[in-house]
Amino acid sequence: MILTHVWGLFSHPDREWEAIGAEPCTTGNCYLRHLLVLAALPAVSALVGSTQVGWQIGVGSAIRLSLPSALILAAVFYVAMLVAVVTMGEFIHWMARTYGAETSIERCVVLSAYTATPLFLAGLLTLYPLLWLNMLVGLSALAYTIYLLYIGVPIIMRVPKEQGYLFSSSILTVGMVMLVGVMAVTIILWSSGGATALGS
Questions:
Q1: How deeply is 7 buried, as exposed, middle or buried, from its count of CB atoms within 10 A (0-12, 13-18, 19+)?
Q2: pTM: predicted TM-score of the whole model, two decimal places
């Protein structure tokens, strides 16, 4: 069943991480059951919001993108999110031995994918792109993502809690750099789309 663990990560994260860790989840399987759907939420929401409502920053009229421009940007954004999750999984796998975790790349990608769940769900708000609301919900989602990371690492990576705390902190550092990179690329792409929309 698609997205079976999403509710559990919010209602009882400890038990849900245990259930996730007990499942045999290959990278392809995890992508098909979880990530492909969740990563589409912010991309499709931003597509609809930017073409139907438009972004308004400060005073002035909202900037709407043309459908062709928005489709290209949404597709690039979607692919960037998928690549970011796999890359993050590879970083986790690379760091695992330092913290005494003997694990597979598949488990690391699973950890990366499920940890990012709140950020993907927060992307639904781009259906109505109100900047202050998107920022507020985005920061709350980021805080809960960090919380999930610190709970999930000892369980999924099978390391003691003390090691898990240090491991999580290292993952968080790499993750924040990657998040800033994805956001910067997104802003540049959407800005160029906005410029195209204004010029047309």
A1: exposed
A2: 0.85
